[in-house]
Amino acid sequence: MSFIQMKDVYKRYKMGETTIxxxxxxxxxxxxxxxxxxxxxxxxxxxxxxxxxxxxxxxDEGQVLVDHVDIAQFTKKELxxxxxxxxxxxxxxxxxxxxxxxxxxxxxxxxxxxRALDAVEVLKDVxxxxxxxxxxxxxxxxEQQRVAIARALAxxxxxxxxxxPTGALDYNTGKQVLxxxxxxxxxxxxxVIVITHNSAIAPMADRVIEINNAKVRKMSENPNPVSVE
Length: 229
Ligand code: ADP
Ligand code: ADP
What we know:
Distance between the termini: 31 Å
Bound molecules: adenosine-5'-diphosphate
Strand order of the largest sheet: 6-7-8-3-9-10
Number of strands: 10
């Protein structure tokens, strides 16, 4: 039984006279604990899929089953609870609060979710035990992304959604961040979904979903994903 299932999801944006179809009948499913890459060119509709899965946007039509519940039927209030308690988000540009330290940024999770883990422990887990008191500006891009991942993981989300998490990083730093995401998936059983326009990431995934021009063009399972080193 799938952990996530998008069934015939449509999303359109009205821009004056024209309508942009961002998702044109999206269908796919994901099993629990998988490391999933959604790949496709810019403008393909990937962020729209991620925003709908994360409860940040709503589908016009279709079903969005997460852990057997159709979040497309959620009220605004239910969707807020879902975003806070069930989903972790990681963004391209980290979205850290600049005037809070690494530790304080991760502690924000405990203001959002009652079951948040201890910030220091999670920062140690992502290799930043020595950086607790540093502000974002005092950290490298890769370290800032680790703080952002720690903040997302502190909530113990069912689902970790990552929007171009390596998009602002150089090749080696990006690889380290991907390794952290892959290891997290393996060690905690968290379902991790990464969207990217970089198809080089695809071989690391358990499942690859290719989106182009608002539709899923291909979905493949990878029995032997490459372990990031
Ligand atoms: P991707 O993440 O693959 O780059 P997006 O899902 O961001 O693609 O966008 C798909 C299409 O929908 C694009 O044409 C984009 O410009 C449009 N789009 C996305 N979000 C909005 C929005 N909030 N308002 C209007 N158009 C949007
Ligand atoms: P990505 O780099 O992940 O493809 P985008 O640059 O497409 O992301 O989108 C970044 C944010 O801007 C998203 O939240 C998306 O919904 C929004 N967005 C994208 N295209 C448009 C648009 N044409 N009009 C308004 N908002 C948009």
